[in-house]
# Entry
Amino acid sequence: MNGRVMMKVIVAYGREPEINCKQLIEAFSKAGAEVIPASIADLSAFFGGGGERFFVRNDEITGADACVVRSLGRGRHESLTRRFSLLAHMQKSGTLVVNPPEAFQLCRDKYRSLIALQGEGVRVPRTIVTENALVAHVFSKRFKRFVCKPLIGSMGFGSVAYEDHDLAYNEFRLLERLGLPIYVQEFIENPGRDTRVLVLGDKPLSAYHRVAPPSGWKTNVARGGKVEIGQVGAEIVALALKATKIMGLYYAGVDIIESEKGPYVIEVNASPSWQGAQRVTDKNIPEAIAHYIINIARK
# Structure
């Protein structure tokens, strides 16, 4: 792209832009880009006869330099499939999609993402994935304490920790009746905290500890977890960089728990929030991400 021409950047969100999305829009505008905020459901494609065009509602956006995806939004399987396909189509047509659709899809699925990490030698928690309540019940007995999570979800919503296997079985049966997958993970004993590393490219942008509230176990800042400023070891940062590379992401939030057996990667988030991360760094995180994406798109 000619540097004298204003860069066109789409920032895609779900129903409404959340705080991180709004900050990114502002950061791209400040960097001199023409920003097109759009609900991902409003993105459309037209092709055939050798041509291809893209729209936000009735406005054409063909030839956009970059599309930053903050959320896929809600919808049925068919709608989500269309959105992934459209992002892949935009990427193939020459638009830089961040994060790449195949990587975004991989991270969205906890099952596939942990398998990918384990395949590259990264330690992940012991996990059972099934649609059979009895199977989940039998395997969960291998764990003293365990967590039942949504296969697709974020910020800890819907995750429940159990020690009572019979009580957990009630949830397994409900999920089975609803035709939903049952995703059960060993609870990794820890000192009441985990570590979040925000990665940009091949460098850590911010690293900090998240401490669970006294009456809970979830460390997500959005769920009451507290940011703890402290030294994050080089081993943890290196692990976060490795996980980000394995997943094929331009930027990511990597959650790691330190235990007696060593560090475990719990999750890699392809559209992380940075409210907690911003508290422990003087860098302007949305501006750093915006400049990074602009530089890549210009190459």
Notes: Residues 127-186 form a domain with the Dna Ligase; domain 1 fold (CATH 3.30.1490.20). The chain has nine helices and 16 strands.
